[in-house]
Amino acid sequence: MLIVQNLIKKYGKELAVNNISFQVDEGEIAILLGPNGAGKSTTIKSIAGLLKYDGYIEICGHKNKTIEAKKVFSYVPEVSSMFDLLTIYEHIEYIAAAYGIVDYKDQAEELLKRFDLSDKRNKLGKELSKGMMQKVSICCALITHPKVILFDEPLMGLDPKAIKELKKAIVELKEKGSSILISTHIIDSVDDFWDKVLIMKNGNIVLAGTRQELMSRNETLEELFFEVTEEKE
Amino acid sequence: MKPLFYILRKTIKNWLLRLKREPAKLIAYIVCIIFFLSAIIFGRSDIGGKSVLDPLLYNAIVGAFILIFTVPDLYSSINNGATFFRSADINLVFTSPISPQKVLIYGFLKQIYSSFIAVFFVLFQGYTINRFSNIKSYGMGVIIFGLFIMLIFTSILKMLLYSVASKSQRNKVILRNTFKFLGVVIIIVYFIELYITRSPLKAVSSLLNSSVIPYIPVYGWAREIIISSMNGISIMFFVYTGLIIASGSLCSYVVYSMKLDYYEDVLASTELKETAIASMRSGERFVQTGKKTRVRKVEYSKRGTLASAIFWRQILEYKKTGFALINVMSVVYAVIAITAGLFSPIKNLTLVLGVMIYLQLVFSFNSKWQRDLSNPYIYMIPDHAFKKVIYVTAVDNFKNIVDGSIVFVIIGIFFKSSILLIILNIIAFASIGSLFIYGGILTRRILGAGNNIMVTALIRIFILVLIIAPAIVLLGVLYSLANSLIGMLIAYGAFITYNLLFSALILFLGRGVFENIEL
Asked: Best residue in B279, B291, B319, B381 to probe A by mutation, most A CBs within 10 Å?
């Protein structure tokens, strides 16, 4: 479970995230929507422990920067970065070692096959295209069996097959009880599997609710999005 | 040209406005300016301690400087082209209805800024130059003028070379072979001088003091202009300046009147440039992409667990590009060591240690720990922050021991130094290396990753110099006082103790780096 309470993030004097609170339960897929500059990536990076912030973030009962929390969560960044001299397979081996995972080989093979990387396993990090880097980044995140997983614009640069496989993998994680938070601005890409929506604008959550709660409004996610994010004339 | 001038004007305006918004950066710039101005002013007032610079040596230094900073640049321009564009220029300027010639001029104007920056760094040598009594009072101004005019001409020549090279593959080959031919001529002349003088250093000096140099277009003239800082300004100074301006104008005219279609080539070179800039920002060493990387096939057998996985991954990376911790850098150090061992007039290992410390300061921006910190994985590894700091820096510390051993054993053999002194220098080199590493981590914690590479780098150098200065002074003072083996042991012992103590202290202060810095 992921709990975010009173999260505030400032870059100098600029307020990027303004005192937001939300929760993602076990087996729940939450989507963080918002226009560019709304504060989605900053929120995700704060949860991942990559930024300094004010407020409280808890992952499976532990503060997000503790070792216990780090053991159970994974993060797929918006811009993947690879180690130049490590092959695709060595990236997975490295992450497995860094997380103390011993039995990973079968799952690694499965992930490589799933994301069409089997025949490219010996390609070096610096030889990969953006899309391939994104696939490796996803494999590295999934190999740790995360209880909480954070995706920042995960579908960017992926080919249609990889998009399909990633969506399937996300649903499988949900079925296993993981809490999933996906930041995106492409509403169509997540419309078919979300459980909770958090719409951000100017650092604030301007709309939050579960699928059931919002269904009563008889509006599509896209209509809701524009209703709360567009400037009133 | 109006829209292109608009971009330049707005860029400068927004840069100034940004300084107003971010006073820390403004302060950094002011500190730098005060730093070099005081170097010049105090350098000049220090009359008592002035020495005389040998004119032949000065000629040779200026000549070598010009050769090193222009020839590789000009040669690479044949392949990589006009690298003064950024990707924003490609996306927004190249696609606009503006002629390629005008776009090239726009690129050239941008290049002038880079030349300013390059000359700015030379200003830091003001103190060293003003120490010599036979350098004129206006010497620094003359040097700056000479360098600036030369760099601007080089930019134009690069454009011309590239424009000619991009016309056909044949032109490219001819230009490349011309450079190779000139290189071979220089080497042949060097060996003739070597045969006559029987001394490698004298041969270099004789080569760079050749009476032919003032007749070499532009670069020979530029050298004569710079040398005026010692010989004084004569009528020839103005003649050479006029000749360089005329040559630059002629080259510009030729470029402007050529039918140019260079966009495709610039596209590739700009991508390279962007990758290089991104690498610099993240502290990585830039390796030219586009070519298939050659790495050794190595078994990733020992992987460690949790934080130690970082250490074993770095070892794997080293194994792929070299033999254990011996890589290209070690070979460079070995070559420097052999050269110093053979030709150094002063056979003193402590002096070599001083040079090595300076090199370490320069190369400290290219360490493994720095590259790891630009990647999110290290922050997320579920282990103690302190362990991560230890493991992420361990390889760099070992590398310092290996490189130190290579340098001091080789030079020690040439200098016929005692084993004890060689070992002491290796430990001293490795210990100050660790001070650089942990000082670097501390500055990273204080400054963050920094968007402005140059300002961050300058502040970092400043902090590092501040940290290591007492160690250097301690070694210098104690070593100069020591006239016995015990005295030397005390000097080195104090130096090493200071380094290790402060490394430990800084490590302790910076241990929370992974919890407190931002990616």
From this structure: B381
